[in-house]
Amino acid sequence: MTSIESKRVQYRKYLERAGVIDALSKALIKLYEEQNKPEDAIRFVRKFMCESCPDDAQYDVMKNDLEEAKTHISKLEQELERLRGQIKKSPEEYQELTTEGYKSLIDDEENVSSLLRKYLTPELLEEYMLVTTPAPVDAYLYDCAVSGFEHHDSTVGIFAADADSYDVFNKLFDPIIKDYHGQMDNENDVLQKDPDFGNVDEIENLDPERKYILSARIRLARNIEGLPFFPKLTEKQFIEVEEKVRSATETMDGELIGSYLTMADIDAESQAEMVKRHILFQRGDEKLTTAGCYRFWPTGRGVYHNPAETFLIWVNRQDHVHIMSMAQCGDLGDVYNRLVNGLTELEKTLAFARHPRYGNLTACPTNLGTTLRASVHIRLPLLSKDPDRLIALAEELQLQVRGPDGGELATVEDGVLDISNKRKLGFTEFELVKTVQDGVVALINAEEELEIAGQEG
Ligand code: ADP
Ligand code: MG
């Protein structure tokens, strides 16, 4: 058989399978049986074939029904999530879940490298399994470790369900915190000194000619004293956090003046667009989902920002608030100054959870201490061509390099990087911002050297 013939056979088989031949035959038979043959035979066939198709009006009704059904499903899903969030587990259930969770870590040993696995010994498990933090939160070890039990690729694998978790489960949290923050040899009682934002004027514009830096941002995380952290926030408390932050922002002054938008009032399209502009967060991270971060979504979530979008507060993203200052240039000094002003304003109304040993408290142990991440989005095309050297250089400068959306370096397009301080605990706020300033300047110098070498060579 020639290839054309074989294609014809295949096509014929396809038409048969799809019912086209059958439908056409029926239409032709119908026309054959018709006593008064119509003038417009094609119209007759078309009409016959479309007998079961909806007309425009019917189509609109169906489309409408579908939209309504989708809205209904999403409401039911929310309701289901709400009900799930309200189920209280008995101590026996907690015991069983914790035992199973731990077993799954041990059974999968070769794939688990989390700090949870490293420091949760059978003895500690036994000791902590049925202990809870004080009422009314009553957080179990399981409430903190559920995400690490389920996601074996976690780096840390544990979140604090409330401020007390850090003390009640201290023999587990403490080594995890020291290990993650490079404080293993620190014998001091205090790992994080009092806040010290230093002399703001010493932080400058790192790229006045706007050659390398696209934007600069510094964020802090805070949790309101007396309320649990996201794993154990009730629906009412999510709203309480939002209300407290909303009223605290009402006294903002000058360039900090802005407005608060609750997530439920932002349509999906605007949300996506705001996420793209880096001024809004979204849900989705699997590890945080398991940890309970998105319960009752979008209730209590939202964003406060000034019209220039240079000062922002994210409410209930993970911690109760993420306070951010941004600039679409390299003026880290301006960003830092605004951040300190914004925090000072908020602290006039809100008391935030602090720990004598760990400083500012956050749900994720990796953010403890200053909770500060100062970052620039920067284009270093020549340095980026040699990722190994770039990472080694950054390491030396105590900086972390990521892709611009927080992702892996491998996803970096046209050399845009997210460069920030690697450490958050054990140093003052000022020291960390200064580290970023000095490090970024050093990287820009290295890039310039490569430019010059390229011109000469
Ligand atoms: P963080 O933990 O500091 O909040 P993420 O990596 O989760 O950081 O990023 C949150 C959002 O902030 C993302 O949209 C990210 O692109 C944006 N972002 C972070 N640093 C900068 C920066 N220097 N300039 C602009 N956007 C930034
Ligand atoms: Mg943030």
Automatic annotation (TrEMBL):
<dbReference type="InterPro" id="IPR014746">
    <property type="entry name" value="Gln_synth/guanido_kin_cat_dom"/>
</dbReference>
<feature type="binding site">
    <location>
        <position position="278"/>
    </location>
    <ligand>
        <name>ATP</name>
    </ligand>
</feature>
<dbReference type="GO" id="GO:0046314">
    <property type="term" value="P:phosphocreatine biosynthetic process"/>
</dbReference>
<keyword id="KW-0808">Transferase</keyword>
<feature type="domain" description="Phosphagen kinase N-terminal">
    <location>
        <begin position="96"/>
        <end position="182"/>
    </location>
</feature>
<dbReference type="InterPro" id="IPR000749">
    <property type="entry name" value="ATP-guanido_PTrfase"/>
</dbReference>
<protein>
    <recommendedName>
        <fullName>arginine kinase</fullName>
        <ecNumber>2.7.3.3</ecNumber>
    </recommendedName>
</protein>
<feature type="binding site">
    <location>
        <begin position="215"/>
        <end position="219"/>
    </location>
    <ligand>
        <name>ATP</name>
    </ligand>
</feature>
<dbReference type="Pfam" id="PF00217">
    <property type="entry name" value="ATP-gua_Ptrans"/>
</dbReference>
<keyword id="KW-0547">Nucleotide-binding</keyword>
<dbReference type="InterPro" id="IPR022414">
    <property type="entry name" value="ATP-guanido_PTrfase_cat"/>
</dbReference>
<dbReference type="InterPro" id="IPR022413">
    <property type="entry name" value="ATP-guanido_PTrfase_N"/>
</dbReference>
<dbReference type="InterPro" id="IPR036802">
    <property type="entry name" value="ATP-guanido_PTrfase_N_sf"/>
</dbReference>
<dbReference type="GO" id="GO:0005615">
    <property type="term" value="C:extracellular space"/>
</dbReference>
<comment type="similarity">
    <text>Belongs to the ATP:guanido phosphotransferase family.</text>
</comment>
<feature type="domain" description="Phosphagen kinase C-terminal">
    <location>
        <begin position="212"/>
        <end position="450"/>
    </location>
</feature>
<dbReference type="GO" id="GO:0004054">
    <property type="term" value="F:arginine kinase activity"/>
</dbReference>
<dbReference type="InterPro" id="IPR022415">
    <property type="entry name" value="ATP-guanido_PTrfase_AS"/>
</dbReference>
<keyword id="KW-0175">Coiled coil</keyword>
<dbReference type="GO" id="GO:0004111">
    <property type="term" value="F:creatine kinase activity"/>
</dbReference>
<feature type="coiled-coil region">
    <location>
        <begin position="59"/>
        <end position="100"/>
    </location>
</feature>
<dbReference type="GO" id="GO:0005524">
    <property type="term" value="F:ATP binding"/>
</dbReference>
<feature type="binding site">
    <location>
        <begin position="402"/>
        <end position="407"/>
    </location>
    <ligand>
        <name>ATP</name>
    </ligand>
</feature>
<keyword id="KW-0418">Kinase</keyword>
<keyword id="KW-0067">ATP-binding</keyword>
<feature type="binding site">
    <location>
        <begin position="373"/>
        <end position="377"/>
    </location>
    <ligand>
        <name>ATP</name>
    </ligand>
</feature>
<dbReference type="Pfam" id="PF02807">
    <property type="entry name" value="ATP-gua_PtransN"/>
</dbReference>
